[in-house]
Amino acid sequence: MKTIEMTGKTVDEALKNALNELKFTKEEVDIEIIDEGSKGIFNLIGNKPARIKITKKKSAIDEVEKFLTDVLKAMDVKAKINIKEENDIINVNLSGEKMGLIIGYRGETLDSLQYLLSLVVNKNHNNIYKKVVLDVENYRKKREETLIKVAQKVAYKVRKSKRPYKLEPMNPYERRIIHSTLQEFNDIITYSEGEEPFRRVIISLKK
User: What Cα–Cα distance (Å) separates residue 141 from each residue in 39, 45, 77, 93, 137?
Assistant: First the structure.
């Protein structure tokens, strides 16, 4: 975290000098006034410069990296953390050993970590909401491709048997993939039933 002390004839001047030095905007820093200074007698005798300390505020990326570093350390998992932010979406990808621990059963641990990261990033409700997407070595993309194939395969089975088919329990994100994939099948309908975390998709023929 970058911190700098700066002086100036006034607090405003000291702040301007500090921001120019660090190349930050006023919104990106916390400001602590150490001494407001004084003009002295006739602005000549005993004048004292203003002194301030500014510290760069933690960015959303800083918050994400710190949180994940602490979690990975607690789990005794060594991983490389790659973070990119674009259009208020923070994409985080982890890579390394023991990644199965981070993914968990059907991605449950991964989803929980993603949820916690979103809370950390968006804890200040005055800031713009940022979406957080956490992935491990492209697990989500691979899982999505698998679910698309499963949905298509089951749809063909339903057509052939003319009987509805229940898929295994899935989280909301995975169920959306199934629903979306089969929207293009004019003779197939999908719906969900059951309570979380055992809610599942039913694939059936349209009546």
Answer: 64, 70, 22, 12, 9
The tens digit of pLDDT for each residue in 191-206 reads 999 998 889 999 999 8
**In this structure, are residues 196 and 173 in contact, taking their beta carbons and an 8 Å threshold?**
no
Radius of gyration of the chain (CA): 27
| One-letter-per-residue 3-state SS of the chain | CCEEEEEECCHHHHHHHHHHHHCCCHHHEEEEEEECCECCECCCECCECEEEEEEECCCHHHHHHHHHHHHHHHCCCCEEEEEEEECCEEEEEEEECCHHHHHCHHHHHHHHHHHHHHHHHCCCCCCCCCEEEEEECCHHHHHHHHHHHHHHHHHHHHHHHCCCEECCCCCHHHHHHHHHHHHHCCCEEEEEECCCCCCEEEEEECC
Here the tokens at position 122 are 């968006």
Q: 176-205: buried (b, 16+ CB within 10 Å) or exposed (e) per residue?
A: ebbbebbeebeebbbeeeeeeeeeebbbbe
Write the pLDDT tens digit of every residue in 5-37: 777 788 888 788 878 877 777 777 778 888 777
